[in-house]
């Protein structure tokens, strides 16, 4: 059983990494439900997802920079607000009731889906 769980986790990692490389950080939307399906507790699945996506994003940045797909200066305008939001989100993760955390996550996923659908 333990070997099966490790195999599923590795397959999930490949899938999330693929989505992250394809969409930027879109793999994070899939990582949380996958981690929960593998038995990881809610808050821990969100935090683990962030760590996984951070590492994958660093690798993806290197790939995009190597392909000259963008210039780092393009991201500089977004970084201060993104860092501030990341700090606030990380501080709120342990303070928000699980119900609110689930509603927020579901709302972001739903909003993203609707936005993509109507583009």
User: What is the oligomer described by this structure?
Assistant: single chain
Q: Kindly estimate the percentage of residues that lie in beta strands according to DSSP.
A: under 5%
Summarize the main sheet. none
In total, the number of strands is 0
Keywords: Cell membrane, Membrane, Transmembrane, Transmembrane helix
Main location: membrane
GO cellular component, one term: plasma membrane
Family: Belongs to the 4-toluene sulfonate uptake permease (TSUP) (TC 2.A.102) family.
Characterization of this structure:
The protein is mainly α and about 120 residues long. It has one domain (about 1-115). Helices cover about 80% and strands about 0% of the residues. The chain has five helices and no strands. The chain is globular. The N and C termini lie far apart (about 45 Å). The relative contact order is 0.09. It is found in: Cell membrane; Membrane. Its main location: membrane. Pfam families: TauE. Belongs to the 4-toluene sulfonate uptake permease (TSUP) (TC 2.A.102) family. This is Probable membrane transporter protein.
């Amino acid at each position: 059983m333990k070997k099966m769980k490790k195999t599923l986790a590795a397959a999930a990692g490949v899938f999330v990494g693929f989505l992250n490389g394809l969409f930027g950080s879109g793999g994070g939307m899939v990582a949380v439900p996958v981690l929960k399906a593998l038995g990881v507790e809610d808050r821990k699945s969100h935090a683990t997802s962030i760590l996984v996506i951070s590492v994958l994003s660093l690798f993806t940045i290197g790939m995009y920079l190597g392909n000259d797909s963008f210039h780092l200066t393009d991201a500089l305008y977004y970084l201060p607000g993104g860092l501030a939001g990341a700090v606030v989100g990380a501080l709120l993760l342990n303070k928000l009731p699980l119900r609110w955390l689930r509603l927020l996550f579901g709302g972001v996923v739903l909003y993203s889906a609707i936005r993509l659908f109507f583009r």
